[in-house]
Amino acid sequence: MTDSADLKNATSPSSSPLTPSAAWDLLRAGNERFVTDASNHPNQDAARRASLTHEQHPVAVIFGCSDSRLAAEIIFDVGLGDVFVVRTAGQVIDDAVLGSLEYSVDILDIPLIVVLGHDSCGAVTAAVESYVSGEMPPGFIRSLVERIIPAVISARRAGVKDVNGTVAENVRQISSRLMESSMSVSKAVNEGRTAIIGVTYSLANGSANPVNIIGDLDPDEVG
């Protein structure tokens, strides 16, 4: 059974890098605690804060939506120094996102990239509505929508018209796009140094459910 003691040991400054599967095991166990209202709130005390003054060893980088209901450290029951977090509305990729992810895998040696979407996503909803109406939103929101529209089109071709189904397709497309857009991420995955797992989060029950895997992660062990 993976618990917060395992997490503390795995993310201590002197710890060795985890495998992608071991990193996901820690996050999955934390999410299970969160879902069952048994969160341990690990690594959130003064001693932990002091230990991280000069270095960090996160177990995963979480590329998630900016939605206020999707706080990565809370839903995976982790603490300071445990996860490296990148967030944009709808998990839209830009140069800053790619640079942050490349830093996480090449400099921090993080073994797992989690692409984290969620149901009832406002950005995906806006993209679906724009696709149906043919009207684009104003300002820079348009840029967000334009980048999500390919997932809307792909979902429609597969017969999926609802927002939550489109969210899952958006997560899958983003996972693949990271491999296509970043030589560093692609190299790290192909060498087995990291893996990518796409996940959708349920706002109602708090569960984080895998929808796709790229790299060295056993689907039978992902859950």
From TrEMBL:
Comp. bias regions, Low complexity: 10-21
GO biological processes: carbon utilization
Pfam family, one: Pro_CA
UniProt cross-references to InterPro entries, sorted A to Z: Carbonic_anhydrase, Carbonic_anhydrase_CS, Carbonic_anhydrase_sf
Region (Disordered): 1-21
Cofactor remark: Binds 1 zinc ion per subunit.
Reaction it catalyzes: hydrogencarbonate + H(+) = CO2 + H2O
Alphabetized GO MF terms: carbonate dehydratase activity; zinc ion binding
PROSITE patterns: PROK_CO2_ANHYDRASE_1
UniProt entry keywords in alphabetical sequence: Lyase, Metal-binding, Zinc
This enzyme's EC code(s): 4.2.1.1
Binding site for Zn(2+): 65, 67, 118, 121
Cofactor: Zn(2+)
Function recorded in the entry: Catalyzes the reversible hydration of carbon dioxide to form bicarbonate.
Family: Belongs to the beta-class carbonic anhydrase family.
Protein name: carbonic anhydrase
